[in-house]
Specification:
- This protein has 426 residues and is an alpha+beta fold.
- The structure holds zinc ion (2 copies).
Length: 426
């Protein structure tokens, strides 16, 4: 049996389970849960995995779930989906749009929606897990279906690892994950090497000396200090990095003072940095520290600035050999619907899991926008304006062919290891 025949044999079961999967997706979409609180989602996932014969490990790192299906000798493959939603008010107009509200960790009432499509990831993985379980004659080895909490806050994978993930499940040889992105549904995109950026979040506090707004001579003005820092930070990417070294630095928040006639004591900046390799990351972070310190010195600040590190995401760097194998399997399965994905300035914590096991991985893009809508926007040159991106209130994957494609992609990738032609015989 060739790899393509094995993929076809497993995917053949999709027709039977499709209505159930679609209903499962719509139910998840109506019932989104914020990170670390995916209790209902995790319980449903664990239930389904158990029904298909997986050994279920739940409660890993809070709400994490891993299903293990041992099917004879052979490699071990890990498939990962994230489960959390976002504090976003959905405006997709879908009949199954979320109207859910919840309290966030600070006690505020917030809307909640699957605005990043993690409900699609969960449903695709459950579909692939089920089909692999019903077609065990065509593959050999062990399959791990891992459902991770709290990707958005960047600490879901870490919590599962801190809770002993690597000791609780068999060690995989390779790991795979996918993410819905605003490309035409039915398409998959692979990329060897750097794919997603690392992200660093910094809170910078600069200290001046407060005074009456009429008496600048009595003050050291933190508003001016912060303003100079904001402008000067723009020169890091434009003047300190090579054109071939991509990075993004955004000052997303500037807070100081409460009144026009009071010079405040302090100013606070929130900075987000995206880089694709550790060297660039260190260059940018060192430049930020240097500029903040120098601007504070230039203003005569009497106290040292504080730079606090917040949420951090690792870079996602796809293994070249693994990606090539998966890309070949996708070309066979999807023909012209398989392609190369562009470098993304989004971030993910998935890579922490394969990194903890010391194994290679690849992570691919799954298109989710109605192909006609996408094509029309492309012809008008309005993709950026008209196609809602992840985290937008209007972001809404089309159910099909996104779901079918995501299920098939996970199966095709798994079978590159679990059903190589020389292992399965005629
Ligand atoms: Zn997201
Ligand atoms: Zn996401």
């Amino acid at each position: 049996m060739t790899l393509e025949e094995a993929v076809d044999a497993v995917v053949a079961g999709l027709t039977d389970i499709r209505p159930g999967l679609e209903a499962f997706y719509e139910d998840l979409h109506v019932h989104p849960e914020l990170g670390h609180r995916e209790h209902r989602t995790a319980a449903r996932v664990a239930g389904r995995l158990g029904e298909c014969g997986y050994q279920v490990h739940d409660g890993i790192g809070g709400t994490g779930v891993v299903g293990v299906l041992a099917n004879g000798h052979g490699p071990t493959v890990l498939l990962r989906a994230d489960m959390d939603a976002l504090p976003v008010r959905e405006a997709s107009g879908l009949p199954y749009a979320s109207t859910a509200r919840t309290t966030d960790t600070s006690g505020r009432q917030v809307p909640v929606a699957h605005a990043c499509g993690h409900d699609m990831h969960v449903t695709c993985l459950l579909g692939a897990a089920r089909l692999m379980a019903t077609a065990q004659r065509v593959w050999h080895g062990t399959l791990l279906a891992l459902f991770q909490p709290a990707e958005e806050s960047g600490d879901g994978a870490d919590r599962m690892l801190a809770d002993g993930l690597t000791d609780r499940v068999p060690r995989p040889d390779v790991a795979f994950a996918q993410h819905v992105l605003p490309y035409p549904a039915g398409q998959v995109g692979t990329r060897a090497g750097s794919f997603l950026s690392a992200a660093d979040n910094l809170k910078i506090t600069v200290h001046g000396r407060g005074a009456h707004g009429s008496s600048p001579q009595a003050a050291i003005d933190p508003v001016v200090m912060a303003s100079m820092i904001v402008v000067r930070l723009q020169t890091i990417v434009s003047r300190e990095l090579a054109a071939t070294q991509p990075a993004v630095l955004t000052v997303g928040s500037v807070q100081a003072g409460t009144s026009g006639n009071v010079i405040p004591e302090t100013a606070e900046l929130l900075v987000n940095v995206r880089t694709y390799d550790e060297e660039t990351r260190q260059t940018v972070l060192a430049a930020i520290r240097r500029i903040v310190q120098a601007e504070c010195d230039a203003s005569g600040a009497t106290r040292e600035p504080q730079i606090q590190e917040g949420t951090r995401f690792p870079p996602t760097v796809n293994d070249a050999a693994v990606t090539d194998e998966v890309a070949a399997a996708f070309s066979a399965a999807f023909a012209e619907r398989a392609g190369t994905a562009a470098l993304q300035s989004a971030s993910e914590d998935f890579s922490r899991i394969p990194d903890a096991f010391g194994i290679p991985y690849t992570y691919w893009a799954l298109g989710c926008i109605d192909p006609d809508t996408y094509q029309n926007a492309r012809q008008r040159g309005t993709v950026d304006q008209d196609i809602p991106v992840n985290h937008s209130p209007r972001f809404a994957p089309v159910l099909q062919p996104t779901l079918d494609t995501g299920v098939q992609a996970l199966i095709a990738a798994s079978l590159t290891r679990l059903a190589p032609p020389d292992r399965t015989g005629p």
